[in-house]
Amino acid sequence: MGDYPDADEEYELMYADDLELLRESEEANVINKKLVQARRSLDFSNSNPNKEQETSLSANIDAVHNEASLVMPVTDDSSLSSCYMQSHFNSRNKRTADEIFGDIGDLEFDDIEEMPIKRQKTEEEADLELIGKILEGRRLKQLLTEPNMRFQVNKRKIDYDYKENLSLNIPRWTFMPLTNSDGERVYVRLESEESWDIYLTRISVPYAMHTSYDEAWDEAKKILEKQTEPENRQNLSEPLLNVDSRIEVDNGLLWVDRYKPLSYVDLLSEEPVNRAVLHWLHLWDKVVFNKELKVIEPQQRNSFSKRTGQFQLTNKWKGKKAEDVPELDEDGRPHYKVALLCGPPGVGKTTLAHLLATLAGYRPVELNASDERSVDAFRTALQSATLMRSVLDAEKRPNCLILDEIDGAPLPTIELLVRWCMATVADVGGGKKKNKSQPLKRPIIAICNDLYAPALRPLRAVSLIVHVGGVSTSRLAARLARVAEYEGLCAPPHVLAALARRAKGDVRTALSVLHFIKMRAKQNPSTNSMQEMKLITSRAHGATRRKMARKWPTDAGGTVTKLSLRMEDVISSSIGEKDCQKGLMQALQVIFTVCSEPDAWNSVLKTVTAAGEYDRLADGIFENYLKARVDAHLLIACETLDWLLLHDIISTWISRNQNYTVYSMLPLCLTRCQRLLATRSPQYIRYPMQAQEEGSSLDIFKFYKVDLVNTPPNGDGVDNDWLTRPSAPTRPSAPIRPSVPTSPSAPTSPSVPTNATAPTSPSPVYKRTSELDGILWSVVRTASPSIYPSRRALLLDVLSLLPHLLAPTLRSANVQLCSENEKNALRNAASAMCDYGLEYVQQRGSDGLYTFVLEPDIYKLAFFGTEERARAPPSVRQAIAREQQLEQIRRNEIQMGRVQSTDKPQNTVRVTPTADSAIPNHLQRLRPKEIERAPAKTENVHNYDLACKPSVRHAMFRLTLQSVFVYLSGSCRDLSSHVCTERRQCTSKLHAERVVAANRPLVEATSVLALNPSFIIRSRTPPGCSSSCFLTFRALYANAVECFVGVHSVPVKVDRPVESRSDAREVFEDMLYFH
Amino acid sequence: MSLWVDKHRPKDFMKLDFHKEQATRLKNLLQQSDFPHLLIYGPSGAGKKTRVMCLLRELYGSGVERLRQESMTFTTPSNKKIEIMTVSSNYHIEVNPTDVGVHDRVVIMDLVKNVAQTHQIDASGQREFKVVILNEVDDLTKDAQHALRRTMEKYVATCRLILIANSISRVIPAIRSRCLTIRVSAPTETEIVSVLYSVCKREGLSLPSELAVRIAKASDRNLRRALLMCEACKVQQYPFTPDQKITEPDWQVFIRDTASMILSEQTPKKLGEVRQRLYELLIHGIPPDMIFVGLLREIVRNCDMTLKCQVASNAAMYEHRMKLGSKPIFHLEAFIAKFMAIYKKFLEESLGDAF
């Protein structure tokens, strides 16, 4: 305590002050024999009314004060500390304080005034400071006992009176509730025998200075016995009696409930978590209690140093600051209407919610999975909880709804909740729903295990998400020690530590195991593993004398039995070992971290086995091992890979032969890698994303998130904790983070080869593999049967060179003007495309331009990131596309011709109906138009037909048809001008706009029909008659017009009031006649 | 049929450009009007398929050229529907059972039985057996191969099998012994050059001899590749010039670059970069054994003689292990890591000697 004022002393001062106040209020309580409970600031609300006016932060500070005053010791030697505390407080007067604190007493009260000034500091600092203080407060209770014990000894006895050991109010010291015959509840101080013994040893020391040890001992003992006879009887007999009777009386009460924390300091969850929830609860003060809150500017909350790494685990807490979300909305309610606590079972989420709600002055109303949660029932519950107030509750506290196990609720219920929360004052005012006459004005705390349950998705977006992590081993062990002490279980610390370690942060399990062991011991004392032993105190005769002095009914056999917990009990209990699932990332973390446990090999093996998923684990090692250890000669890499290869070979062998006899070898291979790869430095381990299948990645990602929650946050106690829990991240600066699959800097993006642009797609390997495989497959399928190639040859030889063949060098001139050579090259390319089933398809790029894209895109398959360079220029593509279509027609015709020549004439007749059946119904009704009386109308067309070769003619028709659709699908503007230019324009340009019609089903159906050249050919009836063929086309055209006008009458009307519809039709007719 | 590879594929035994002796022997075999099951193997691009088609034509006449493509569906024992493409004429059916992966056994059993159990309807003047062509037999699973061997004997009266493989080392001995194995070796470079000449002549082009030799060299004695490369050259630049750039398949270039990366630096970081490139190759479907071969060839070129043996034996070992395993990327990387370790040690030792 050299350089005053440091934080400890400062805190001590505050502490002392509060305790004094507490004592005053307590005395008042006893005198008045009335339950005076604070509305929300508990004891201090009366004595320190000015605090009530303070901001949310000061409310928190209040809470801290309260915590300090609510002395329910957490530490191992709790009864000791409680003894001490009690005596210290009771006997303390001003002088004592001066003695302790020297000449600094005058600062005591400045402390409170100083707080607002401190609040001017950044939020972060204040947070840290507060957390530091709370943690300090916990430590203090331990510290205080040791050095000052002797100092207080003498006073203690003098001031020990009955008033301090009995209370009508819930006392702050450890107590046992007793109910007398009138139903009045009295609280009796609880002290254990050990504390007495230790106490006795302590006070004996001063006497040892001048007399012989034994003499002094006896003397002191006698004095003490005399002095404390009545108390002894009370204190020693009561607890044990109580424990015994309680087990018989309230057998049904689980230890989890019996020993649930009653004050903030007793909470086992991590400090940031507690604070986050409490802070959020205090944000409601304005709405609920009409108290002014000082809204902290989001900017102030931004600066976040590395030290707050501990906050980052409660991600929203951090996220809220980062996103600059104001804490309160315009109605004065918190931005997040719901706090969503999530975490593994048994870590105390429900307890936390209840306790904090009570502390903040609410009456917790719980709604859990056992209640009906249909939408109606839920609405009723919601209304009753948020809009009404309990009549019976004497203090008229507002409700705080706690929705437990919400991840099991049906989706509509959750949606209702979200709607309820989102309704603002304005909304509700507007909406005339009589039921929802008020917006939500009470805090709602939702609790879930699985944050990523599908039903919770809507809720996640609107709620403050607080991850409640597992309780750290040391703290859990300390708590277990206390419980054991209460229950009269003699448990050595190492046993409890082992139990805590095995419980892995699960308080409930740990307590249940204790409970179970105790109950078993009671039921069959002879066969169980519990030891019955005589109550051995440090001095036997003292104990016996004390025993003689009291006579309690259970002491029939004359021996006091005390149950002791042994290591075997913990080991034989099945928790933690069986069925424990480790996340993949946890296992990876273990593999890449040096294991400090004595039996490293086995513990790593155990983790690996628990994680399962050996294949994926191997992937994980494979993807991370290169960065694990400095390995200039790559010897570690070789060795690691050898083990991985062995793993791969074994697992392949297993799956091939379906023989699982060697399955147990797999984890061994992986565990070997730990020897090679483990380092002490923290590792940044990536989730194995590269080789995994895409579909499952999301699930795994989800699980991983949960794992992240499971790892204890780096609050207090982690520094010594991580030695015992190798899976815990060693430093807050190296949290395990999954690599996000969609991030642009994802690890899959390959290194850039010098001569190629980077293959940009960061998508997982699996996705791209299947994509490229699909390309290959579609080529295999569509390639003409005469060249039916094996896949391997196709991939390695043909497809890798084919793109070069499809890019002939052409002058950028009209195709008609090309030289013979160029035409040949063009034709070659086109026919090669036909051979391999390739096609140019128009696609609209992101810039709105249409480009010809090869379908299937073998460029992607053939090139490694250089495909753009090798693609043919657009003009060439366009030319090839046209040529390819013609070639396709030609081929179909040849095939048809072959069919016609080889088959009988009836066959041709039969072809037509089959073709017809492919026509959708709306086309079929137009069939009658094919009758022969049309030729007069189509005279010129007929001539035109005669002028062309049949194949060319068909192509022309097709192109015209396309342009018609372009025409139809356009926005109907400048129809006439369009028609004028139509004939001159390069049709392929218009062709491009065909895509516009893509979302118009009818037009598309027609166009697809029309664009299918084989259909065009097949629909000729009879073959060779061009005029009737054209009639068919006409029918199609007309139909297309109808479709268009029918479907798009609305947009057309919007564009052009009345005339456009008829316009379109007229222009269209013109066009048809022109042809 | 516009690519030179397809267009100028000989359709008759007499028109084959190389292995003429073998062709005569095959022809003689067929003139007995019967032949045993055949197992034709040889490297890719040697003309196995061409010979099979010649053989069928010799057997059934030009009717075999009228091909149709059908897809057949099978149901696996686990009730999974699988679909496979077949190419068939009236006389034969060709199928690639490895397309369905591990379910190839079902295909073999069902398809071969189906075909074999139906007799030719029009037996007059025709052979009384059909031909089933199975591609890539060496990639068949062991199950499928075992399923095959009984079928081969049982239905020998109604069907003949022609198995095509790259190498018979992975064909089980039971099948090998039931077949007449015919090896079609890759054409020599001079043979390739002569084929190139004849093709160019038929196309009416003049091919400079230097270019032809270069193409033959670059083609790796793969006639298909040689022809495609030649045509690619023609598309890019005609008239030919002797020092024209020959387009190679991009994956070969990629593997070569990867090999030079490996040789340039031997660190874990580089290994990580190489891994990405390996992934890229695997994504593109390049068979891992080809990657092994390509890498080894490039690496060995830059190695000291003493290292060559070591590297090659390592490559063989890792490739073998890869066949046993199922994650090629592990094995490829293991080989590269091993090579890097060896090479680095070697470099340091030689440097140490120098000082």
TrEMBL record, chain A:
Nucleus among keywords: yes
Biased composition (Low complexity): 739-765
Domain AAA+ ATPase: 335-472
Pfam families in UniProt: AAA
GO cellular component assignments: nucleus
Superkingdom in the source lineage: Eukaryota
SMART domains: AAA (SM00382)
Subcellular location: Nucleus
GO molecular function, one term: ATP binding
Residue ranges, annotated region (Disordered): 715-765
Record key words, sorted: Nucleus
Family stated for the protein in its record: Belongs to the activator 1 small subunits family. CTF18 subfamily.
Name of this protein: Chromosome transmission fidelity protein 18 homolog
Gene source species: Eumeta variegata
Gene name of the encoded protein: chtf18
TrEMBL record, chain B:
Coiled-coil segments: none
CDD domains: AAA
A GO molecular function held by the record: DNA binding
Chief location: nucleus
Domain AAA+ ATPase: 34-190
A single GO cellular-component term on record: DNA replication factor C complex
Keyword terms of this UniProt record: DNA replication, Nucleus
A Pfam family this chain is assigned to: RCF1-5-like_lid
PANTHER family: REPLICATION FACTOR C / DNA POLYMERASE III GAMMA-TAU SUBUNIT, REPLICATION FACTOR C SUBUNIT 3
Subunit-structure text: Subunit of the RFC complex, an heteropentameric complex consisting of a large subunit RFC1 and four small subunits RFC2, RFC3, RFC4 and RFC5; the RFC complex interacts with PCNA. Forms an heterotetrameric complex with RFC2, RFC4 and RFC5; this complex has ATPase activity but is not stimulated by PCNA. The heterotetramer of subunits RFC2, RFC3, RFC4 and RFC5 interacts with RAD17. Interacts with CNTD1; this interaction facilitates crossover formation.
Family assignment from sequence similarity: Belongs to the activator 1 small subunits family.
Function text: Subunit of the replication factor C (RFC) complex which acts during elongation of primed DNA templates by DNA polymerases delta and epsilon, and is necessary for ATP-dependent loading of proliferating cell nuclear antigen (PCNA) onto primed DNA.
Record's protein name: Replication factor C subunit 3
Organism of derivation: Eumeta variegata (Bagworm moth)
Lineage: Eukaryota, Metazoa, Ecdysozoa, Arthropoda, Hexapoda
Recorded name of the encoding gene: Rfc3
